[in-house]
Amino acid sequence: MRTVQGTWKHGLKIGDKVHKTFVLREAEAGDFFDAEADAQTNQVLTFDAALACRQFVSIGDYTGPVLLQQVRKLKPVDLMLLRVKQKELDSQGEAPEGGEPGTGMPSSS
Questions:
Q1: Which backbone phi and psi does 6 adopt, to 5 degrees?
Q2: Which end of the chain is more exposed for a tag (fewer CB within 10 A), N or C?
Q3: What kind of fold does domain 3-91 have according to CATH?
Q4: Nearest Cα to 105, choosing from 40, 25, 24, 38?
Q5: How far apart are the C-alpha atoms of 37 and 1, rounded to whole Å?
C-alpha cells in the first residue's frame, strides 16, 4: 500500500505534544464509506478531512485513532498541506478517471 509523508508548518497538538510530521496511506473503499458518516461528499473540505482521519498512519510518534475534531484544529495552511498530500496519493494511485480532486470520488457534474 502506498504512503506519503508530509510536514506541517504549525503542526497538530495531540495531548501535550505538537506534531509536525505525518504519514498518510492510500484510501480504500471502506474509508470512503466511513468518511461519509462524518460528512457528505458535497462538503469537500469536511469529507476530505474525515477521509484523512482514516488515512493517517501516524502523526509524529502518535499512531492512535485520529478524530475529525482533532483535524479541525489545524491551521488553514496545514489543512491545505494535508489536502496536497491526499491529492499526491490520488495521482500516484488508481483514482477513477474524471474523479473529484483530493477525494478520488467520481465527479458529480
A1: -140, 160
A2: C
A3: rbstp2171 (3.30.2220)
A4: 40
A5: 24
User: Which of the four pLDDT bands, split at 50, 70 and 90, describes residue 96?
Assistant: low
pLDDT score for 4: 97
At 40 the pLDDT is 83
Give the integer Cα–Cα distance in Å for 66 and 82: 14
pLDDT score recorded for residue 1: 86
Query: Is 51 within 8 Å of 85 (Cβ atoms)?
Result: no
End-to-end CA distance of the chain: 30
Per-residue confidence at 70, pLDDT binned at 50, 70, 90?
Answer: very high
Write down the pLDDT at residue 109.
Answer: 42
Q: What are the sequence ranges of the domains in the chain?
A: 3-91
- Do the beta carbons of residue 22 and residue 14 sit within 8 Å? no
Quick one: 65 exposed, middle or buried, by C-beta within 10 A (0-12, 13-18, 19+)?
exposed
